[in-house]
Amino acid sequence: MLEECHPQTVERALYQIHEGFGIINELLDGPYFASLLKHEYGNYVITTAMKNYEDEVLLRLVRVIEDEEDSLEGDPNTTNIRKELKQFRKNERANQISKCRKHAL
């Protein structure tokens, strides 16, 4: 289904939370996810998902992106994805520090 859709159409659908979960799962399970990361416009779909979803969906998305991380280096179409991944890691680190401080008190 998704391979027939324009990336902007998919990106807009991600803003609809009930549609977005299904779309993200279809993207992650599809054989074309790695190429979508590097696609001239498709990478915006992934960036939008990273910015708008949390918890299990975001963690699954990040895990799959991390599996492809080495191939993203140096590709100009993946700049925003790499920035979002870096921000995710920074936030995760801050959350871990905060939890440690709470337990220390």
Question: What can you see in these coordinates?
Answer:
The protein has 7 helices and no strands. With 105 residues, it is an all-alpha fold. The chain has one domain. The radius of gyration is 15 Å and the shape is globular. Helix 1 (7-14) runs parallel beside helix 4, helix 2 (17-29) runs parallel beside helix 5 and helix 4 packs parallel to helix 7 (79-104). The model has no long low-confidence stretch (mean pLDDT 82).
Q: Keywords, please?
A:
single chain, 105 residues, mainly alpha, 7 helices, globular
Short synopsis of the structure:
Keywords: Repeat, Translation regulation. This protein has 105 residues and is an all-alpha fold.
What layout of secondary structure does this protein have?
Layout: H1 7-14, H2 17-29, H3 33-38, H4 42-52, H5 55-67, H6 69-72, H7 79-104
Largest sheet data: none
Q: Could you tell me the strand content as a percent range? A: under 5%
* Low-confidence segments: none
Count of runs of 4 or more consecutive helical residues: 7
Return the structural class.
mainly alpha
Report how far the terminal alpha carbons are from each other: 52 Å
- Report the strand count: 0
Rg is: 15 Å
The count of domains is 1
How confident overall, as mean pLDDT? 82
Give the overall silhouette.
Answer: globular
Helix content: over 70%
